[in-house]
Design the sequence.
């Protein structure tokens, strides 16, 4: 194969009928306010850990809604639980509680 110095990105197409939303449904039951997120990105813009890592509350929720649980958990692990995202959220979502719920859900699954 000829090396052009670039490659075509892997397709990010997601077949929603095949996505396992088990974790997101559990999270939704514990924190119904998760559905009021409008992906405005304010939480990400003010994230303390976001300056040094790839933590982004907005992306974490989008990943969970698409069944990308492992990728979401990797991001949650870098969160410092400072709560700044909760204070700035335009919808008043208890983001910190959601982050804690995600950690608990995964810890329960690992047992
Ligand atoms: S600030 Fe609130 S509404 Fe906006 S993306 Fe973050 S969680 Fe969602
Ligand atoms: S609680 Fe986590 S996601 Fe929210 S601002 Fe702090 S480090 Fe970022």
Sequence:
């Amino acid at each position: 194969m000829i090396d052009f110095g670039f490659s075509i990105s892997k397709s990010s197409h997601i077949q929603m009928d095949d996505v396992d939303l088990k974790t997101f449904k559990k999270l939704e039951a514990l924190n119904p306010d998760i559905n009021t997120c409008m992906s405005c990105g304010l939480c990400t813009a003010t994230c303390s850990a976001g300056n040094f890592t790839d933590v982004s509350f907005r992306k974490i929720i989008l990943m969970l809604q698409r069944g990308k649980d492992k990728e979401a958990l990797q991001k949650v692990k870098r969160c410092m639980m400072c709560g700044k995202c909760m204070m700035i959220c335009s919808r008043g979502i208890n983001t910190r509680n959601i982050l804690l719920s995600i950690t608990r859900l995964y810890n329960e699954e690992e047992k």
Remarks:
- The CA atoms of residues 60 and 72 lie 5 Å apart.
